Amino acid sequence: MTIVTYQRVETLSGRYGSYSYYSLRSLNDAGFPVECLPFSVRILLENAIRNFDGFAITNEHIASLINWSPGGGSGDIPFKPARVLMQDFTGVPAVVDIASLRAEMARKGKDPDLINPLIPVDLVIDHSVQVDYFGTDYAYEQNIAEEYSRNKERYEFLKWAQGSFDNFSVVPPGMGICHQVNLEYLAKGIVTRNQLAFPDSLVGTDSHTPMVNGIGVLGWGVGGIEAEAALLGQPIYFLMPQVVGLKLSGRLSPGVSGTDLVLTITRLLRDHGVIGKFVEVFGSGLESLSVPDRASIGNMSPEFGCTVTYFPIDSKTLDYMRSTGRAEEQIELTEDYCKANMLWRSGEDKILYSTLVELDLGTVKTTVSGPKRPQDKILLKDFRARFINILKESYGREYLPPAMLERWQGEGGSQPASAAQPGNQDMTIETLKGKDQKQVWLNMGREKYMLNDGSIVIAAITSCTNTSNPYLMIAAGLVARKARQRGVGTKPWVKTSLASGSKVVTDYLSRAGLLGDLQALNFHTVGYGCTSCIGNSGPLPEHISMAIEDNDLVVASVLSGNRNFEARIHPQVKMNFLMSPMLVVAYAIAGRVDIDLEAEPLAYDPNGNGVFYHDLMPDGKEVYQMMETALSKNDYWKNYAEIFAGNAAWQNLRVPEGQLYSWDAESTYIKESPFFKDLAEEVPEVRAVSNARVLLMLGDSITTDHISPAGSFREDSAAGLYLSGLGIQKANYNSYGSRRGNDEVMIRGTFANVRIRNALSDREGGYTRFHPTAEQMSVFDASVRYRAANTPLMVLAGREYGSGSSRDWAAKGTFLLGIRLVLAESYERIHRSNLVGVGVMPIEYLPGESAVTLGLDGTESFSLGGYENGITPGMELDLKVLSANGLEKSFRVICRLDSNIEIEYYKNGGILQYVMRQFLHR
User: Fold this and answer.
1) Domains with residue ranges and CATH for the chain
2) E-strand stretches of 472-580
3) Which of 383, 645, 691, 756 has a 20 to 30 A CA-CA distance from 217?
4) Which of left, alpha, beta for 9 (phi over 0: left; psi -120 to 50: alpha)?
């Protein structure tokens, strides 16, 4: 069958003009079963037909999509996104790679301008703002000033890239979070180029890119290396997905929020098993869910483990586009195209899905999740009891309420240890011990208050996940207003913050008069960025930090974010709970998580009357009435009209000139990437791995935060020692995330999470044993010794290895440490792909096998071969094992190079090396 059979071109005309499009309906009318395909697969099909070239995208690719079956498939599917979305933490290293490719092209006498984005790239600087200042009117301005002070060099580099690269735009700091900006402004629904109309689509260098699925745009998170290949014209290849249908019915009960729904679905889909799959939402329950509700669900896709959570375009989508100020011509084009080309939500009863999951929205209850995984769902009514169980199970502590601790002290417990702290004569800390639990009294001037296990030290209204939803934000403001009216406020030991995903939120909260109410409870705007959600909570107040550190308190954070992995929010905070913005305000008032919010008062008013959560929670009618008067499309027009302008600090940045970036040898932020220097023009021979030693032996659910943390680091860490050796003061370390343009810092930060547990070490954190001498040392120091001995390295891991963020440096750092193999029971999608993308081979135990069943303890030597003369996707290989006592054995493993193109990437040493050689051979 020839391509002419598939390519049917039709024309759309309207106020928007006249455009051609590739018609799926014509294919359906010709007998191809398009109407039975999930909407997300239809978009992939249109993409393949439109981009067909007979080489990278073939007839076979198109045929396999047309004949998609619920079981998915084993063949490669190509995808060419319409655009790429980046944020600065992942965007800086991606731009460093592109600039490094240009440098290598120039060294080889080729035209460096060949290395240029071929599709639009939007980079939003949203991950660098840190909550250094809070609870004051000046917090926002001071945090912005600190952000520019720390990141000026990075920002100059990005501004250079904006001027040097084609199709590359930068949204300056302080404007919003990339996913909320994408939802409110960048997403078009339908794109037009060269008189051709087609569905908007993208990949993003952040895991939560699927948030845009809520507005009917197909997009998902990839590693920066995949995104770089896509913007250089390469298709992204992946296995034909299974598509899980999520059928919603009913409607949410009064008092139940969109956040509660999101956290419920997170647990539901994680339990069902959707890793690497598409999820598509349908059913009558969609009628009651707004686009922000849908987008919040899509945002959490990486927490489910799926690639996308797609919501087809319908009338709710158009309502949202209209309310956010999109042009009427764009809205009309979106409606006409989708209805003409079988992408409008209709005919759901004909669609086939791989599996079906059903949820009655009326069964959803008020929910939180934690303390360290988004899928750890806890009903609000069970929260206090669950906290007490976790305290015992995870920390070996018997819970006693504060009153009991005070009584114990009075009955002859340990005496207070009181000391003035250096530099602050008004501050003292008194420690009272009672059996397995501690009570710490803090004296600040005339204030005295108590910290104990379960005290909340961070309460953050943060993350695009929830700040993109006006209902939730206005409801949180009303909780603050009612608390203010009742004469209660937040506790003095709680670090409060409000970090909206766009400036539009500030506008409508101000118009509603709620911004002042939130500020009265110390929820001042601290920035427009990811802040606590990405780990930029900033330092805790000195006395709080010292009390936690000196007494090993198990304190908590509450946040309206999407991630709560270990040590992500703050290295001193061991329990982190996700919840709605309304609950964040309520728990900040309570100051502790060991409270039954449904039965106990949050606080007492000046007259001694208890103030309960149900006293403060507004009803839906009250929220909707305020939304009608507070929301205005003019806010979107105003803020997004100046989205690329930036403030004076951005406009005054010094921008290097030239097609090639002038690398500064003294820079500790931006260094030329080490991956492409002196790249051989021909593909090297594939070699077996012999006598590899285990650098780390890890358990289940190791996240990319464990592998490559994004937050702050200590002076005694490998990265801290490196910077200190260069004369950098601790105050200027910044964060791992901000230094992703410097491989020397990032390699030292790999596997350096303070909560990672390596079975080869008896110390928590980034430590291991150097097998030849049995010495315990940092992972980085051990890797240096192994490199000197030319010893290849590997990692042993359990299930769900690499879950979490689409963090390139989790793979890049792995490779630079000298790790050539990773053996796990299972992988999360993006990290496995990233490992292949840098030339590390992921291998997998056979089903039912593990390090435990095979009797591995990590002291063995491993050799893998049998693929040097040819690799096939998913082939089984023999892994030979030599134990410390000289015994030899072998077992079969699965090579997780899942497609032919991944095999090519691996043979080339990585995806960008593959792309580079394509340019060199032109």
Assistant:
1) 3-78 (no CATH), 83-365 (3.30.499.10), 369-381+453-493+530-634 (3.30.499.10), 400-449 (no CATH), 689-708+750-920 (3.20.19.10)
2) 495-499, 525-527, 556-559, 575-578
3) 645
4) beta
Residue 652 φ then ψ, to 5°: -95, 5
What the block records as the tokens of 598 is: 């449904």
Q: Provide CB contacts within 8 A for 344, sequence distance 6+.
A: 312, 313, 314, 335, 338
Dist CA 829 CA 305 (whole Å):
8
Q: Which residues contact 361 (CB under 8 A, 6 or more apart)?
A: 248, 249, 250, 251, 252, 261, 285, 288
pLDDT band for position 627 (50/70/90)?
Answer: very high
- CA 136, 139, 481 angle in degrees (round to 5)? 45
Tokens coding 20 = 């051609």
Cβ of 249: how many Cβ atoms within 10 Å? 14
Instruction: Say how far apart CA 168 and CA 353 lie, in whole Å.
Output: 38
Provide CB contacts within 8 A for 725, sequence distance 6+. Answer: none
Spell out where 283-354 has E strands. 308-310
Answer yes or no: is pLDDT of 435 > 90. Answer: no
Closest to 807 in 3D by CA, of 709, 675, 666, 884: 709
Report whether 713 contacts 720 (CB < 8 A).
yes
How far is Cα 128 from Cα 173, in angstroms, rounded to an integer?
Answer: 8
Burial annotation 61-78 (CB, 10 A radius, 16+ → b, else e) = bbebbbebeeebeebbbb
pLDDT digit string (tens) for 318-366?
999 999 999 999 999 999 999 999 999 999 999 999 999 999 999 999 9
pLDDT number for residue 737: 84
Q: What is the pTM of this model?
A: 0.87
Query: Would you give the end-to-end CA distance of the chain in angstroms?
Result: 31
- Residue 636 C-alpha from the chain's centroid: 25
Residue-wise DSSP of 551-599: HT---EEEESSS---TTTS-TT--EEEE--HHHHHHHHHH-BSSS-TTT
In sequence order, the 6+-apart residues with CB closer than 8 A to the CB of 626 are 474, 478, 512, 514
